[in-house]
Design brief:
81% of the residues lie in helices and 0% in strands. It has 4 helices and no strands.
Length: 102
């Protein structure tokens, strides 16, 4: 079964280098680059993780100083600690991706 001319499938599978197939492949590559460039920029920035970590740390401090019942404070602070661990994991994963992508 052959793919139609002007598709990336024809360009890749059947090695067709006619102009419509080449254009289809070029458009696919551009879109792929745009998609991953946005992800790469977001990973490089990392602002959101820094902001979230600050917010959670501040909330933890407020809970520690609050007059809420001990059990409630402990469960909320445990939840915040779990989120902070997740953020650290994401941060480490981000660093790995940036090293591989370089």
């Amino acid at each position: 079964m052959t793919a139609e001319h002007g598709t990336r499938a024809r360009y890749v599978r059947e090695k067709c280098r006619c102009e419509p197939c080449t254009i289809a492949n070029r458009e696919y590559q551009r879109e792929r680059y745009r998609k991953y460039a946005g992800i790469r920029r977001a990973l490089n920035r990392g602002d959101d993780l820094v902001f979230l970590r600050r917010q959670l740390t501040a909330r933890d401090a407020v809970l520690a100083a609050s007059d809420l019942p001990r059990g409630e404070v402990r469960s909320r602070r445990d939840e915040i600690a779990r989120f902070l661990v997740l953020i650290d994991d994401v941060d480490q994963y981000r660093e790995q991706l940036l090293r591989v992508g370089s």
